Amino acid sequence: MPPRDNGAEEPRDGYEFGLLGPLEVRHGGQPRPLGNSAMRSALACLLLEPNQVVSMDRLIDALWGEQPPRTARTIIHGYVSRLRKLFTPDTDESTHDPPRIVTRPPGYMLQVDSDRIDAHRARALVNQAGNLEPEERSRLLSRALTLWRGPVLSDISSERLHRMVAPNLDELRMVALEERIAADLELGKHHGLVVELSELVEQHPLRERLTGQLMLAYYRSGQRARAQACYHALRELLADELGIDPGPDLRSLYERLLRDDETLAAPKRSTGGTATTGDGIPAQPAELPPPVAGFVGRASESAALDRMLSEQERDSAGVLAAITGTAGIGKSALAVTWAHRVAHRFPDGQLYASLRGFDYERAPLSPGEVLTGFLKSLGIADDAIPVELNERVARYRSLLARRRVLILLDDARDAEQVRPLLPSSDGSLVLVTSRRRLDGLVVRSGARALPLETLPTTAAVELLDRAGVPGRSRSEPQAARELADLCGGLPLALRIAAARLAANPGRAVGDLVGELTDEQNRLAGLDIDDTDTSVRRAFDISYRNLHPSQAWTFRLLGLVPGHTFTAHAVAALCGTDADTARSRLRALTLAHLISEPRPDRFAMHDLLRVYARELVSAATDDGGEKSRAARRRLLEHYLAAADHARRFLRPPRDELDFSATEWEVPGITGRAEALEWFDAEWPNLVAAIDTAAGLGWHRIAWCLVRLQFNYLMVRCPWEDWVTIYTRGLESARHIGDDNGTVLMLAGLGVAHSRSGSPEVALKYYAESQRVAAALSDRGELAMTQVNMASALFRLGRYPEARRHCEDALRTYRALGDRYREAGALNNLAQVEQVIGNRSTALEYLLEAERRYREADDLEILAMVLNNCGEVSVELDRVESARRYYGEALEVAQRCGSTMRQAAAYLGLGDVAALREDHQVARRRWETALSIFEAGGSPRAAEPRERLRRGKCRAEESGVQHCSGV
């Protein structure tokens, strides 16, 4: 069957993206206008890693390097907002599956078919061409080369981004070009290649492969003298500029030219004996296993291997590469596929051995057994093979001393099994695969590590198509993506799923998705009858090699509710200390049963998590009590850690205190670290709340919800906010905890109030007040009155709002609670402002400002400063307003509150408009709009209206803001 056509010579429907030249976005063949150079750089970063999360830190680094502006994060929020608009089709356009930029902590992810990005399409074509016949190979590579429109990202001003990207893509073009020429040489097109190669060698005088191809083209065209002259010219150039000689491939080719080696005379493709390639290099022995059918993806990993090979050829140095990863990740498939693609560059052959490091039934091969096989392949008779291992090693290395051989060592157990099999020659390349990280091979033998990750969704769907029923994904696109997600991008699982679909062509993809959605059936559904192939079996082999303490830790990791975990969390889960937990986690990382995507933050593949849960269930003989105890310890850790972290964001406004815990908490010492911890742990905390409620630990559930309030006020993830507080309210009511009920109702009120639904907020606040009235806590009742005032104010019910504020203020002053008094003062100021008592309002606000500065509550301080700016505008104190808004922006940036930053930008725009600086005003309003839109805030309507009108009046300076609990 011919390969799938990945090219795009003709315009296609939908979006197309170009990186191989000036950055380009086309829709239906028509170019789309882009923003400034920095915004284009941000888009380029997302396009370079489609369907992968690009962190905010990486975006900042790519755009500005080591000296980003203080507002870098805000600027990027604005760029993302504008890019989202770019991908929103007009009402009269029809776009199938348009690209989407989604927020995924710690950054953004561009969801798009990578085939629509020219750089990724080019890589796919180059990889796809590797195992094809010369004619088809030449055709695909030619198509890949047409995708380059000029210098890579030539209209991007970021030098840092150029340094990161351009060399790799330029090298990809040269590899594609050289491979296409090699295919054309195999097809006997040497006459036509002479002119092209002459120009290329002049442009790239140090690329030895191009020179070799030109020598061969000259030789086959009857121009032997010119062929030899090419070699001498390069040798002199290398000696003058680098002080080195040509590499072994080129020297070998030159020597064969001198003796008129018959293998050079014609482009033969041998069916037996000594095979030849288009470059005229013999390839024997040829022990590589057959290429893996339907191989997809791995473009970046293949490019990394290509770079290693190019460095070897340039520096005449041996290369040892270690491809590592978890079971079923596709290590062998990548190694074998890449080895076949570059086999022609190793004229003395390819050696292969399956080391059986993790075989289910057979012991690993010893180095001596492997060496015996290799020596036979290299022509040594049985009776001449040395008995002693050291002698076998010496004989093996002597035979390879002047040879250029590719050696593939598959499924290695450890470094000790591999080390005796390493040649001493500079011309050979050794490729090792293993489920372990082989750090010893990296440290002692200089191995280049290449860890594999799972396939992105687009490549996973393509693998399902190629290995199963071609075209199935187009008939059920959504189901195919869901199936790829359920397989976790694990190639082994994807191939098994594809095989099940192929065995029953009439079965819908959605049916298999339904079967695998149930975690209890997922691993069973990824078995194939009458074979030993299964995901569970692959995992079993790795698991059985663990130390008992590591195995116990691995099983318990199946109980972690989230997708990532830290050593502190695992210490609580296992009932040990953080150092011991970290040591066990590192051991599991070495075995590729978990990963460490960030320092001291670990993760587990979804299918491995299902496998671990099965193990912990099977190992439990006490009715599940050990599992419940482990889960409770983990939840207690989250309580203590969240309580510790929240106190750096804002003062707690409740009596909850979980500092007296036996479990270690992260060493957070400041606001930035606390915010970073919450950002990283947020999905885990949401999952932990569900777990606690599901297990009937309702007090833990609602307390854990409440401990997130300070973070929610800063980051404002509206949907999560409402979801977890609703769950917390259910738990508090379930156990009849009135204090918890008051706090959960109040939190729901704040969420709805801040997201633009004051009517809904008022219902929650009113119920919260009714419950609080039955309690003896006057401060709690006053808190509900402040909240009521906030909602009533937004609904225009000013007398009621004023009465609640004054009642709460009297209560707080009687209690001596200066901090909570500030909230009542702020809300009372809003009422005074709207009824025209602006001077009184400003006095209240300044008093509230002092209270919040005392408490170091930066998030609410920023709100109060914004309110001071609004009142100052109404008092015609424009310079004071500018100062208040400027300080509000600085405070909001310090505490990380994007919504307060947006409000400050909105006010600064209003001040600029009053000063008739309309250009500055527009920029400020655009920034405010982008932040409000990125956060889903209803306040986006305010800057949008100002921008529409092009000017504003002083009385249109924006709605007032009241504080919540």
TrEMBL record:
Q: Which residues bind DNA?
A: 7-112
Q: Which residues form a coiled coil?
A: none
> Which InterPro entries does the record associate with it?
AfsR-DnrI-RedD_regulator, BTAD, NB-ARC, OmpR/PhoB-type_DNA-bd, P-loop_NTPase, Sig_transdc_resp-reg_C-effctor, TPR-like_helical_dom_sf, TPR_rpt
The entry lists its GO molecular-function terms as: ADP binding; DNA binding
> GO biological process: any one?
phosphorelay signal transduction system
Which residue intervals define the domain OmpR/PhoB-type in the entry?
A: 7-112
Where are the residues of the annotated region Disordered?
264-288
Matching entries from SMART domains are given as:
BTAD, TPR, Trans_reg_C
Keywords attached to this entry: DNA-binding, Transcription, Transcription regulation
One Pfam family, please name it.
Trans_reg_C
Alphabetized CDD domains for the sequence? BTAD (cd15831)
Q: Which family does it belong to?
A: Belongs to the AfsR/DnrI/RedD regulatory family.
Q: What is this protein called?
A: DNA-binding transcriptional activator of the SARP family
